[in-house]
Structure prediction request, 228 residues.
Amino acid sequence: MISKKKEVLRLKNISKIYDMGTVKIKALDNVDLIINEGEMVCIIGPSGSGKSTLLHVIGLLDTPTSGSLYIDGIETTKMSEAEQAKVRGRKIGFVFQKFNLIPSFTALENVELPLVLCTECKNRKERATEVLSALEMEERLGHYPSQLSGGQIQRVAIARALVNNPEIILADEPTGNLDSKTGKEVLDILNNLNKQGRTIIIITHDESISKSIQRVVRIKDGKIIQDK
Prediction:
């Protein structure tokens, strides 16, 4: 008997409208999407297609105007900001295009930072060291971002996303600021994480990335136009 895959994410009739005063912009238009545990999904679209808004809604960084978002079967759209922050901290790891590392913090301190906000997390330094070492950064623990290459900085950003052991990794243009060789190394890391059972969602406009991903979701004008 084939067991049914666990559903980790469901978007139901999600719309997002930005009120610009005299004009209203519909960034997302009744989006329906289901992502199961262990999937690697590429959400791709041109600039202005709504993909960044979709990332922010999925990551509980922005609230939809209408519709429902379920994470692990629990509706999050009716939660308070504090409740959403708790779910976000436990369930989701973010990898940003611009890295968003703190320049005055070492690699170890940057990765340790999400654990500082977790009252239940013990041995923070040991956990951050473990994750960085798994990404072959054990010799760069005390280095500052300015002392690291672009690829090393992105490895630190990935380690920071992993340190809370989240179910879902959201990667926003993870290769956008990297050369092609380093970008491939970062994609290889994300692929390996997926093979270990992580659910990976990559947001990008880069068609070359979609060629190596098992499921591609295309978005245009706030609507999903293809999902295969």
Observations:
- The first strand starts at residue 7 and ends at 19.
- Residues 57 and 86 are 15 Å apart (CA to CA).
- Helices lie at 51-58, 81-91, 107-116, 124-134, 150-162, 180-195, 207-210.
- The chain has a mean pLDDT of 91.
